[in-house]
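INFO  loader      accepted 1 record
INFO  loader      residues=153
INFO  predictor   begin
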Amino acid sequence: MLILFVLCIYCIWKYIIQSQQKLSFATAHNRFDVSRLFKIFEPEQAYERPVFQSIVNMEDVRRFDDVSKLLFEKEIFKRDPKNATQIQYEFLNKMPTQTQSQINQFDGGEWSIFWGYKSQSLEYYVSRFGVFYTHVDGAGNEHKLELLPLKDQ
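INFO  predictor   done
INFO  writer      dumping tokens
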């Protein structure tokens, strides 16, 4: 009986105590070290953040100016608002892809088409006094053209 008692104590010791020792040994070696995840920057390691600037393609700037010159050369004198979308798309299709365009209606039958690309703009403005073109080119210079109706129109 004594042998059976000693055998039971040995089994209990082996099963309970050694399993606890293995568990504490495993957790001691598998602890998650947070300091390995985060690298702390020292002041001398600090860096400047890059400044993101709008990238302007000079070819697109030139293309917008060329299309604007084309409008000035054609001297389109269409005063009917039904022609606005036709004029808008005729020139918008030749401009850089990021060009914004809108048609505006005003009181008194006046309307305009505006094209804009980055710092450049082009406007076709129709009023009762005539048709006016305004263009701000890539260098920031403003160009204007006035087409006044003839007396018999």
